[in-house]
């Protein structure tokens, strides 16, 4: 079974630029999550999708972050404009159900904002 | 929302020793209690989980114990090996919600 695919693996941008991350979840997984992991901390939920609908985006900084899940499969996360404090690893995860079940994580995209 | 705390934040043991990491949570509605292991440069990976109708679960050298009354659960690793060195996260949750991670425990196993 193929795992969660994310790209790119690394990205360096200047502050105020925009950036986009892509995620392809495990086939058949209805739930998709984006997490932000700052160095030395636990992953923090940004947004949760169930199929192509948003379940929870309460911690997504909506003035600069946006996310969509195309046709209930792939997802993109965008930051525009980026700030220095956005430097982090962005993790995508998927699961069969909503909560109460194993989430499978991709390797993440390491973003550095300079 | 859920408030999750892990202790200790760092743990150093000798190979062959046991390691215990404790997680406390605040939401009494939580009914699923997983532990994830994160190695350098990788995403977290589930190593063991327990549901609220069970008090203990064991899988070879790792075990998880749950005290729902006191709202805490613990990860136990016996006969530690160097490859157990990683960051461990607890992430209690309930159906319909996303995993809420603790701050993590860095385990170092020296040979």
Based on the structure, what is the oligomeric state of the protein chains? heterodimer
Profile the largest sheet of chain B. Answer: 5 strands, antiparallel
Termini distance of chain B? Answer: 41 Å
The rough form of chain A would be described as: globular
Structural class of chain A: mainly beta
Radius of gyration of chain B: 13 Å
Shape of chain B: globular
- Please provide the count of β strands of chain B: 10
Q: Which structural class do the helices and strands of chain B define?
A: mainly beta
Report the C-alpha radius of gyration of chain A, rounded.
13 Å
Spans of chain A of at least 5 consecutive residues whose pLDDT stays below 50 are none
Provide the low-confidence segments of chain B as ranges.
none
Straight-line distance between termini of chain A? 37 Å
Strand residue content of chain A:
over 45%
Q: Kindly state the number of beta strands of chain A.
A: 11
Q: Strands of the biggest beta sheet of chain B: in what spatial order? A: 1-3-8-7-6
Helical segment tally of chain A?
0
Number of helices of chain B: 0
For the sheet with most strands of chain A, the description reads: 7 strands, mixed
Largest interface between protein chains, with number of residues from each side = A-B, 25 and 24 residues
Could you characterize the architecture of this molecule?
The complex is a heterodimer of chains A (114) and B (111). Chain A is mostly beta strands and 114 residues long. Chain A contains no helices and eleven strands. In chain A, strands 2, 4, 5, 6, 9, 10 and 11 form a seven-stranded mixed β-sheet that branches. A four-stranded antiparallel β-sheet of chain A has the order 1-3-8-7, with no helix packed on it. Chain A is globular, with a radius of gyration of 13 Å. The termini of chain A are far apart. Chain B has 111 residues and is mainly β. Chain B contains no helices and ten strands. In chain B, strands 1-3-8-7-6 form a five-stranded antiparallel β-sheet, with no helix packed on it. A five-stranded mixed β-sheet of chain B has the order 2-10-9-4-5, with no helix packed on it. In chain B, strand 6 (56-59) and strand 7 form a beta hairpin. The relative contact order of chain B is 0.34. Classes of the chains: A mainly beta (114), B mainly beta (111).
